[in-house]
Amino acid sequence: MGNQTIYFKKQPRIIATSTIAGPKECEGVIGRYVETALADDMFGESTYEKAECKMLSHVIDGAIANAGFKREEIDCIVSGDLLNQIISASFAARDFSVPFLGVYGACSTMAESLAVGAAFINGGLMHRVVAATGSHFASAERQYRYPLELGCTRPPQAQWTVTGAGAALLSDKGDGIKITAATLGKVVDFGVTDVNNMGAAMAPAAADTILAHFRGTKEEFEAYDLIVTGDLGALGSRILKDLTWEKGLDISERHVDCGEIIYNVIEDEYQGGSGAGCSAVVLNSYLYSKMLSGALRRILFVATGALLSTVSSGQGESIPCIAHAVVLER
Question: What's the CATH code of the domain at 142?
Fold first, then answer.
């Protein structure tokens, strides 16, 4: 429908999920829904990067086990992360001996991996696919901003990269949450150059994809219980609602953001959560549980990503962003 939205006739479904999150993330409401709550964000490893990789392996194995399958029964793992050359996902995949597709959408990777996995299943090419992603606060800060050892002061527009990972096992059979459509985003750049202000950078991309989804499907936004963005945080969420309102779509009553859900947005957390693990943890724990219970029946999950690098930022480039959306139905 339109030139961005794909309908999945076979309606691939999420039959199991698995999540893991750090101690800070588990202090809030999400802690009651996360499968594995870490007491130490090093996860028994010697570096943050190794801990991030271990978290991804943990949730991929967890989703497979929770669905009652073995590794050899999985057709493909679709995963990515924030680190250079998606090393967390790639290094995790080497332990599984399962076909692997590495994807990079920055913090939009959870939605991207769901869309890719659903497309393979819908086309009859695969039967079971794991979609996964994650992030780690310390590894992300070291790569994109400043090493923690420098003790830099965080500006008020900053978000806190989530330490956590989430995985969903998609299948062509079984009971679960159906993936009925996906709207693939376009790269949008409004000229934001502040690497700390991810919400302002990503909000235009989220608005572009949401508006494209409703133009293509001809649906009313009331058809959804929630329109969930990935990690815009408090500031980005306000910008998104302004941008969609200017185009005649008032989503304020049904919009929530994973970055605002995962932390209590108070002084220490500034604008809320960010990182690929933000939407992955919230979707595969809290939202998944709410859908299974029937509290939510239909949501538009719009994960958002800032496609910057240390090189591009160092050369004065602005921050191109993207958002991908998937329709989830009980």
Answer: 3.40.47.40
Q: Would the pLDDT of 219 be above 60?
A: yes
118 and 184, same domain (yes or no): no
Query: Distance between CA 89 and CA 249 in Å, rounded?
Result: 37
DSSP H or E stretch at residue 65: helix 48-66
List C-alpha distances in Å: 140 to 52, 148, 160, 255, 294: 10, 10, 10, 27, 35
186 located within any domain: yes
CA dist 172 and 129 (Å) reads 9
Residue 267 confidence (pLDDT) = 47
Residues 30 and 80 in one domain: yes
The radius of gyration of the chain from alpha carbons, rounded to an integer in Å, stands at 18
User: From CA 18, how far away is CA 130, in angstroms rounded?
Assistant: 11
- Based on the fold, state whether residues 44 and 88 are members of the same structural domain: yes
End residue of a domain, out of 171, 197, 224 = 171
2 belongs to a structural domain: no
> Could you report the per-residue pLDDT of 220-279, keeping only the tens digit for each?
989 999 999 999 998 999 999 999 999 999 999 999 999 999 986 554 556 888 999 999
Provide the pLDDT for residue 266: 52
Q: What are the Cα distances from residue 10, in Å, to 6, 13, 114, 124, 179? A: 12, 9, 14, 9, 9
> DSSP states of 257-296 as a string?
EHHHHHS--SGGGTT-EESHHHHHHIIIIIIHHHHHHTS-
Contact at 8 Å (CB) between 160 and 52? no
pLDDT per residue as tens digits for the range 29-51: 899 999 999 999 999 999 999 99
Inter-residue contact 324 to 228 (CB < 8 Å) = no
Q: Is residue 235 part of a domain?
A: yes
pLDDT at position 263: 86
Give me the domain span that covers residue 91: 7-171
**Hey, CA dihedral for 322, 80, 70, 58, is it positive or negative?**
negative
Pair (185, 162) in one structural domain = no
